[in-house]
Every structure is written in structure tokens, then in C-alpha cells.
Amino acid sequence: MIRSRALPVLLSLAFACNLFAPPLSASAQDVTITINPGSSGETGQSDQAPFTGDRPAVDVAILLDTSNSMDGLIHQAKNQLWNIVQRFAKARKAGKTPQLRVSIFEYGNSGLPASEDYIRQVVPLTDNLDKVSEALFALTTSGGDEYCGAVINEAIKRLDWSSEPNAYQAIFIAGNEPFTQGPVNYDDACKNAIGEGVIVNTIHCGNYDQGVRGQWQAGAALAEGKFLNINQDEKVVHRKTPQDKIIIQLNAELNKTYLWFGAADRRRGYATNQAAQDANAGSGLSSRAAIKSSSLYSNVGRDLVDTYAEDADAITKLESEELPVELQKLTPEERVERIEAMSKKRAEIKKKLAELSRERQQYIDAQEAASAATPGPATLGDAITEAVEVQLQASGFQVEN
Predict the structure, then answer these.
(1) What phi and psi values does residue 102 have, to the nearest 5 degrees?
(2) Looking at the structure, do residues 344 and 394 belong to the same domain, yes or no?
(3) Please, which residues have CB within 8 angstroms of residue 332's CB and are 6 or more apart in sequence?
(4) 83-108 burial by CB neighbour count: b if 16+ within 10 A, else e?
(5) φ and ψ at 136, to 5 degrees?
(6) Are 195 and 254 in a shared domain?
(7) What does the DSSP 8-state code read for residue 93?
(8) Of 79, 245, 285, 300, which residue is the least packed, with the fewest Cβ within 10 Å?
(9) Cα distances (angstroms) measured from residue 166 to each of 6, 60, 126
């Protein structure tokens, strides 16, 4: 039965098991991902109140084991962040794309205080996806004790989960040690999570049977989530497509349309971090560019164009020195003209990017269909995508293929 606040589910684990680390050797073992079909949130329609807000809420917390053995997991998380986010970009409720917020926690790292159960909130729930990417790429591993129940409890307690009825809220927790370790009983933590409307998806890194014995499957069942099993050392492969070159060029043009505001050091920081996360995306830049062409990549409160679209009066409340240098000496009317002109230019670039991204995905789908007779090993991103699609639909979203 789906609880009161939502059908949450996804990314913690998703990111958790395939987002980080340096390139792995081509000889990595085949990955096995198993999705448990038995949890109650997977089929049927939500019985929650319909969405009535400006944007449907989607909150995802990713809890990553950063102990010594998890370099491969972190590598996967880094490399598949934008692929995972793309699934949310294809979701609609009442014709509107969701307001996606993502949080990152790390646990099991001996560099963290033992008094805090080796847990750290890396990023609170935020719609600043560049900040999420930056946080992932800053993670490092070190041996420690992995307390799954404690980190789940901390995420539920500390984060400002949406209060919107029928929001989609999910934890994804990834790791390889028994789910039972630590001072907080996993049974209590998972029941507490689903009681708050937050689904818990578990991603065990390693042997499937070991994950079952270690209670990762039981934890997911308690919180109406999915139990996933992967090889965290499987190398992530990004397919090259004919569209990549133009997409990358358009991405560079898109970056020029951002009018960052705030104190001078903040403006520089926003621009620098946007470029840095483009660079971090590496061969996955086309996937990141696809997200930047969607409404999920929003910089309200940081960029004048996005902020003006949501609140046209917002720029009148800013001091001149908070504006981009090129706008500081303009009259209020000229500033509006510049923002509207940049908004039009950005919309044109985004439209082209979206079209090319669709063509790119069609090309990838055709390539994968052609090689279906001898499929390669699945990755965490594949498993998360499948889980997210089912869970979003159960939460009242329509998800495009």
C-alpha cells in the first residue's frame, strides 16, 4: 500500500551504485542486476490527491557507501548522473515536468566522525544539479563502518521533504556490507521512511545471494522499494553518435546565455562550476546537454533569465552591483530588453538541443536493438531507469519512452 505523502523511490541507490570513480579496467566482471518484482508500489494507480501545484514535486536522496571498496560505485555514479536524470525529464504530471531536487549523503567513510556514525550530508535537497554533480566528483573513499539504518534515518530526519500530496519521494542507498550493521535497526529505519511517504530502494554491490542474506532485499520490501544488485566495478560505456559534435557546440552556445547574478564571487562561481561540470561529464556531455535543454535544469535565484521567467519583478529588487557587469550601467528598461533577448536566444538553442537529443536517443536505441542478440552487461543506470519509470507511473506521472 502506498503511504500518504508520495510514491518515492529512486535515485539514492541509482546514483549510489554507479556514479563514481576513475575508469575501470575492461576486464571487469559481468554485472548482474536483479529487480525484485514483488513490492507493492510497482503497479496500479496512485490513490493520492491529484497534483494541483505549479510543478509536481520529485525528491530523491542518494546514499552512497564511500568505504575503500566503493571506488567503482562512485565512478558509476559520476558517469551516469545525467543519464539517470534524463528519465525524470521525460516525466509529466498534469502536462508539467517535475521540480526535481536531489540530495547526496555519504556513509561508511573512516574520514567521517565516528560520533556521527560515519555519515555526512554532502548536499541537501536542491534543484541545483551542477552542485549535485560537483559534490559527486569531490567524493573520495576510505575504509570505515557502513551503517545503513543510521544513514536512512538521518536522511529522513534532516531533509526538507516535500509536503505536496502524492509527491514522488525516494531514497536510493548503495553499498556492499550487511544492511544490518550499526546502532539503528534497518527494520525501524525503513518503516519510518515509508511512514513518511519515502520509498527506499536498495542497491547491493556484489554477489546477489550475499545481498539477500545481508538483508538488502528485506530493507527494500519494508519500504516499498526495489532491491537491485550490481557489479560496482563494471565499466560505464557512453555510445558515440553522429549528433554529439553539434550537441556539444550548442551546449557551449547555451552557456553564453546565462546571466548570473549575486555578489561578484558568486557570479564567477556559478559560471565556473557550470563549465567544470561540463568538463566532468566527459564523454557523457551529450546526456548532460540534453538535461540542460529541459526544464529540469533550472537556475532560478542564480540566473536572471530563469528567474525573470518565474518572477518578472525579481530583478527590480536587485542592487546594480549584484547584476552581471554588462547590465549594471543599463536603465531598468534596457535590462529587461537584454534579459528578454537572451531568453529568446536560449529558447532557440534549447529547442535545437532537444531535437538533436531525441535524434541521438533514437540512434542509440537502434544500435542497442541491433546488438540485442548479444547484450552487454547491464549497469546501475539501466536498473534505476527501469525502477524509476515504474515508480513514477505509480505516483501518477506519465513517462515518455
Answers:
(1) -125, 140
(2) no
(3) 316
(4) bbbbbbbbbebeeebbbbbbbbbbbb
(5) -60, -45
(6) no
(7) B
(8) 245
(9) 4, 14, 19
272, HSE (Cβ side, Cα atoms, 13 Å): 6
Cα atoms in the Cβ-side hemisphere of radius 13 Å centred on 284? 23
Cα 227 to Cα 38, 44, 215, distances in angstroms: 10, 19, 10
pLDDT digits (tens, 9 = 90+) for 129-146: 999 999 999 999 998 799
Q: 99 with 204: CB under 8 angstroms? A: no
Give the Cβ contact number of residue 264 at 10 Å: 12
Q: From CA 70, how far away is CA 306, in angstroms rounded?
A: 37
Element at 340 (helix H, strand E): helix 332-370
What kind and span of H or E run contains 200? strand 199-205
Q: pLDDT digit string (tens) for 69-111?
A: 899 989 888 988 998 898 898 899 988 999 999 999 999 999 9
What 8-state DSSP symbol labels residue 314?
G
397 φ/ψ angles, rounded to the nearest 5 degrees: -90, 150
| H, E, C per residue of 231-272 | CCCCCCCCCCCCCHHHHHHHHHHHHCCCCECCCHHHHHHHHH
Domain that holds residue 22: 11-236+379-399
Set of cell numbers at residue 17: 551504485
pLDDT of 189 reads 98
* Coil/strand/helix, residue 2: coil
- The whole-angstrom separation of Cα 188 and Cα 200 is 12
User: Which amino acid is present at 305?
Assistant: V
Task: Say which residue the cell 536498473 belongs to.
Answer: 383
Dmax (CA) for the chain in angstroms is: 68
Q: Residue 390 maps to which CATH number?
A: 3.40.50.410
- pLDDT tens track for 379-395: 777 777 778 888 999 99
Closest among 401, 394, 399, 400 to 169, alpha carbons compared: 394
- The candidate with the shortest Cα–Cα distance to 62, out of 129, 2, 4, 142, is 129
Q: How many domains does the chain have?
A: 2
Q: Give the whole-angstrom CA distance, residue 155 versus residue 211.
A: 22
CB neighbour list of residue 280: distance below 8 Å, 6 or more residues apart = 78, 133, 134, 137
| Residue 1: inside a domain | no
| C-alpha distances out from residue 199 to 62, 303, 308, 385, 394, Å | 12, 33, 35, 16, 12
